[in-house]
Amino acid sequence: MTNVEYTEQAIGHLENLDPQVADRVMNKVDEATDWTEHRLERLSGYPYYKLRAGDYRAIITWDHDDDLLIVEAVGHRRNVYDRHLPP
């Protein structure tokens, strides 16, 4: 089973969300620990993956060697990529 870690940035993002939305995102991340390759989508041009949770997205680094998902950022789909991905 894949393990999950949250960066300080991602924890801050979750704390700023409505509690129900934050719970939905965290539940989706937990679900992604099973069948990870089917639940994550690779972001083209970046070393990250995205996970959909309603209108929100989690930006994730997947360390295949250690079987670890690192949640880097969480935000609304309209601006999470602009704010948290390098240009």
As laid out across the biggest beta sheet, the strand order is 1-5-4-3-2
Query: How is the main sheet built?
Result: 5 strands, mixed
Summed up, the domain count is 1
Radius of gyration using CA atoms only: 12 Å
Please tell me the CATH architecture by its name: 2-Layer Sandwich
What share of the residues lie within helices? 25-40%
**Poorly predicted spans:** none
Number of helices: 4
CATH superfamily: RelE-like
Distance between the termini: 33 Å
Q: What coarse outline follows from CA principal-axis ratios?
A: globular
Number of strands: 5
Mean pLDDT: 95
- Strand content bin: 25-35%
Helix/strand structural class: alpha+beta
The CATH C-level class name: Alpha Beta
N-to-C SSE string, H for helix and E for strand: EHHHEEEEH
Please name the CATH topology.
YaeB-like fold
Organism: Natrialba chahannaoensis JCM 10990
Pfam families: ParE_toxin (PF05016)
Protein name: Cytotoxic translational repressor of toxin-antitoxin stability system
Keywords: Toxin-antitoxin system
Name the descriptors:
single chain, 87 residues, YaeB-like fold, globular
Overview of this structure, please?
This protein has 87 residues and is α+β, with helices and mostly antiparallel strands. It has one domain (3-84): YaeB-like fold (2-Layer Sandwich), CATH 3.30.2310.20. Helix content is 36%, strand content 32%. The chain is built from four helices and five strands, in the order βαααββββα. A five-stranded mixed sheet has the order 1-5-4-3-2. Strand 3 and strand 4 (56-63) form a beta hairpin. 23% of the residues are buried.
